[in-house]
Amino acid sequence: MYPTAILTLFLLLSPFSTSSPVAITDDGSSAYKALVDFNFPVGLLPKGAVGYELDQASGRFYAYLNGSCGYSLEGSYELKYKSTISGYISENRLSSLTGISVKVLFLWLNIVEVVRKGDELELSVGIASASFPIDNFYDCPQCGCGFDCDKGQVRKLKLNRLVSSI
Question: Which UniProt keywords apply (predicted)?
Fold first, then answer.
């Protein structure tokens, strides 16, 4: 499972917002800055975010992409993003996520939570979670081809360990 897909959703929030929702649709780069402001790397969100909304009081956010998006990693994992990604964001935690899914074997599973623990990101699909080094997420993937699109290569994803499964 690739964490980039999951986290891409979360960067759409801005800690400088007021307590009411703030919509930004003309500056997608602000979504990436918001991720950084909550201690997440920008690579959780694919290239092309067009806006975001954040309710500063509750942490509820919405991230907007220019359409749905998908790509493969390592030839085995596929990620899909809906045009709207939502959830709750706080320092080091994205929860109740919707709009991001990963294909594991023959099943599509929703990524529901991302937690930063030091230099690792733990991605959860509810029944299982996996931990990845944060440096997997320094760059944003591109819809259609993921990473290294110009070279025709797929970047290998580093996996630290299986965190838990039920």
Answer: Signal
Which residue type occupies 110? N
- Please give the backbone phi and psi of residue 73, each rounded to the nearest 5 degrees, phi first: -125, 135
CATH of the domain at 151: 2.30.240
What pTM value is reported for the model? 0.74
C-alpha pair distances (Å), 60 with each of 17, 75, 119, 125: 12, 34, 25, 19
Dmax of the chain from CA atoms?
A: 44
Rounded CA-CA distance 133/138 in Å is 10
The tokens for 147 are 């990473």
What is the pLDDT at residue 28?
55
Contact 86, 160 (CB under 8 A): no
Give the pLDDT confidence of 94-128 residue by residue, as tens digits. Answer: 999 999 999 888 899 999 999 999 999 999 999 89
What is the total count of domains within the chain? Answer: 1
Range of the structural domain that residue 50 is part of: 3-165
- Residue 150 makes CB contacts below 8 A (sequence gap 6+) with none
Residue 27, pLDDT score: 53
- DSSP string for residues in 72-83: EETTTEEEEEEE
In total, the chain counts a number of residues equal to: 166
